[in-house]
Fold these 2 entries.
Entry 1:
Amino acid sequence: MEYYSLNRKAPKTNFENAVIKGLAPDKGLYFPEEITPLPASFFEDIDNKSYPEIAFEAIKQFVSPEISEDTLKTIVEETLSFDFPVVQLDDSISTLELFHGPTMAFKDVGARFMARCLGHFNKNNTKEVTVLVATSGDTGGAVANGFLGVKGVKVVILYPSGKVSDIQEKQLTTLGQNITALEVDGVFDDCQDMVKQAFLDETITSKIQLTSANSINVARWLPQLFYFMFAYKQLHKKHDEIVFSIPSGNFGNICAGMVAQQLGLPIKHFIASNNANNVVTEYLQTAQYNPKPSVATISNAMDVGNPSNFVRIQEIYNNDFKRLQANLSSFSYTDEQTKAALLEIYKTYNYVADPHGAVGYLGCKAYLKTNPNAHCVFLETAHPTKFLDVVENVIKTKVELPSQIEAVMDKEKVALQISDYNGLKGFLLNTI
Ligand SMILES: *Cc1c(COP(=O)(O)O)cnc(C)c1O
């Protein structure tokens, strides 16, 4: 598959290069040149296919020929070594649990897939890369875990001091080996700005091959389309009008869902569920896209003021506002509403959601008001214990820690403090 830059001022390139570069030389996001729908038989036979088989068929066109079919089979099998259960709450609402991976947020799949692709490209030790990534919480842990010990890949994670949960901090600061955590005196946007500046800094890029493991990287972004197929497999016999409510921040996950739809998956509608960071909710109401500085909320992985994947969504719908509006609704909720939803879900269904999932639940409820025949699946993007304080305070009940979380609790944090771009630059030039 060839990839082109959405800024359209850089040459096309193949999958391997798109993964190694992260961003095109003109700073545009890469986008696949074609999305060829899967044959109808793929969906008709879906009940007979395993998750790795579904994933293999679905992503093959995007990674070939640089990744051979045999290699791809191994990569998807290793990536998807845990479950993706749908839990039905009632006739109209289900949740797709995407938190059964090693760091208990949905980013595990993209991080594990990308790490294996980079490891494969570097098998002859010729393509050393440094993955530079800013995290608002979950990306850091997923990337640290996914890339731990991958040959020829160094990982540098920037996270905002005091703005990630304790468990999230442990997950990204305790692994060692090829992973370094930089604790930034600032907010997530500062981390993201520093990463962007480093990509533009020739004194760095002339010495080090930098790439990104945020969802701008096609190998992190595209595997997320699997989730929608896994949910479909579990639900299609019971429900024929399936809609998804996706708690969204950088809009990578929802955009991958839209790629699944382009591949032919019968998804009736998407709901982008947002916290107070509501630039897309406003856009769908006003047709004005006004990025804003992010504000901190209890669903911190969605605290994004200028979602990087929105340009990809615009591309999928051909920049046609009406077409986008027909496929996508968006709602935005305050922290108070989110907490009330957590409690409602617990009281009504005896189900413990996390703050992101609770925002997704509210999106379902809002959509179902005017579309009562739909079956709405909200994505549970993280395990509730990643946000233990908030969740336990609201439902007034202790939640048991899963083994993945238990395992990092007692480990010692190792992070380097930096306060500005020079701190990052010095680290990269002197240490990497
Ligand atoms: C990253 C993340 C999101 C937002 O996903 P995007 O792809 O950036 O829209 C939502 N919930 C959780 C728990 C996350 O970690």
Note: The first strand starts at residue 2 and ends at 5.
Entry 2:
Amino acid sequence: MVSTLPVSLEDIRAAARRIAGRVVETPMVLSASLAEIAGVPVWLKLEHHQTTGSFKLRGATNAVLSLSPAERARGVVAASTGNHGRALAHAAKAQGAVATICMSRLVPENKVAEIRRLGADVRIVGRSQDEAQQEVDRLVREEGLMMIPPFDHPDVVAGQGTLGLEIADALPEVATVLVPLSGGGLAAGVAAAVKGVNPKTKVIGLSMERGAAMKASLDAGGPVQVEEMRSLADSLGGGIGLDNRVTFAMCRELLDGVVLLTETEIAAGMRHAYACEGEVVEGAGAVGIAALLAGKIRTGGPVVGILSGRNVDMEQHRRVINGEDVAFAEDTA
Ligand SMILES: *Cc1c(COP(=O)(O)O)cnc(C)c1O
């Protein structure tokens, strides 16, 4: 079954060999406080300590290294304001390639500066993410740049899957893995890896209630568009692409469920990470902890929660930790 999917365990093992030494093998630690709440051993995979602050470096690095030398020389391109943009900028620079990252004029200056600092050529175009993507398409068409998308690409999924291999190696008896879920590159890769090693392992995707595109698509039986809303888990926003080729089919086949979290629950997850585990995580990185705290996970064996990223505005983080109202947190009806 698994071998008919676009990305196999063998692809993920090959990705792990390719990116070895170029990404951090992140630690996995026991959480006594969460184990007490969940009644089973709970491990946290500290992937927010990855270079550039998120797991996206795994997929970007594998994708850049999988290009032929001629393709790499043409340069890579993506439209991203967030963790994929950072990761691709870093991965390209590390391989001596030029990364062009397209963003709309509405992106805050600090995000632009951060991606420039990582060595990317930033192009500011248009007034929306769609217009930025049109510029990406033009650069691919007219200048021959290689597009590396944030999730819907076999080499990206295989790279994210290396995180699952590290979990399976460290804890072969893992019963349930909790994976933050947006476009599904991380969930697809991690599920293919851990289920490839042990088919009995359950993989649960976690999204915010406000605009969970993969959940809506799985329910509808095909990719659908959802309304985008602000969320503490901003890295989980955006659609899965109506022409999705890789991640929808893999998530449909491999995920054992999707759990949705409210903004209040995500805030509690971030607070717990900080106060009890000593970790600064962004909203998207806190959804696993949030689901455990909310009692939304049922499992009889050891759980691993992936803390997927740490790139949060520190002023917003401070407000969440202090329990101050985050303006949009509860304006959901
Ligand atoms: C991108 C991202 C996700 C979601 O990954 P997908 O592959 O799009 O599902 C989760 N957490 C963080 C921190 C991210 O940057």
Note: The chain has a mean pLDDT of 94.
